[in-house]
Write a structure and sequence with these properties.
By secondary structure, the protein is α+β, with helices and mostly antiparallel strands. It has one domain (about 10-205): 2,3-Dihydroxybiphenyl 1,2-Dioxygenase, domain 1, CATH 3.10.180.10. It has helices spanning about 25-35, 85-90, 135-145, 180-185, 200-205; strands at about 10-20, 40, 55, 60-65, 75-80, 95-100, 100-105, 110-115, 125-135, 150, 160-165, 170-175, 190-195. Residues about 1-10 have low confidence and may be disordered.
Length: about 210
Amino acid sequence: PETQVNASPAPALPGGVTLATPDPDAARAFYADLLGWTYAAPAGPHPARAGATAAYAGGTPAAELEQAAAPGRWWTVLAAGDVEAVRAAAGRAGARLDGDDVHDPLGGSFRLRAGTDLVAPGPGRPSWYEYMTTAPADADRFHADALGLRASTPPGAPDDSYALLLAAGRPVAGRLALPPPLAGLLPTGWMVYFAVADPDDVAGRAQG
């Protein structure tokens, strides 16, 4: 069954990530070893923030890194053909707007970027995005009204604790309802998965 919500005519699609960190040098070294990232000055039509570095995996853009105050965080970046329309829709849906940063009424945050180009899938790059929340119905309504993403429960699912977020009928992200044991441990907001050849090996090296 699909959640009945009012969809925006201008979808915004998860299309990349930015790591905001108080120690960019340490982050670059860590992810170069972990995911094979290489680095260069950001290129392309989108203006970069001061001090930003573009990360590449296999010669293809994977992420951006930027200097930020502690404790640092990952930003999911949503690409939209009409950023101003999405910003306006997000504001009407209750979000707080701070330049390209959007803070939704549920406690999550994301960034907006003009354009329709998305990070290409592949090893060392983002492969899937999920929004974690303790209020799934409210999250589904916001994502539809603000981003044009419609929630749909996968066929055969026992309940609506997990939904796919669809743009033009195509899954572009997921929405996960956090169960009570995790609600106090994991924050509301976007989570990104990275593609790797050997998850166990990468997880072991990440833990040191």
